[in-house]
Design a protein that fits this description.
globular; 76 residues
Amino acid sequence: MHLLATQNPGCFTLAYLPDQHILIGRWLRPVLLHELQAHYQELLGAALAHGSCRYWLLDVRRRRINDADAVRWFGE
């Protein structure tokens, strides 16, 4: 597993499993919408940097998943 640098490692971590071609994003606390959007941009950037990696494993156990703004943003 290769840990990748993120803008806020105390909030969001990112790792790459080259043998399985999987990105793992893990939230370490609840986040605001603008933070969530920035984290997804980091995921996309890492995916493109690793040969258009299309498999993402998202650990959302510590993140609020029923936030109305985030749900609306995902639906756009």
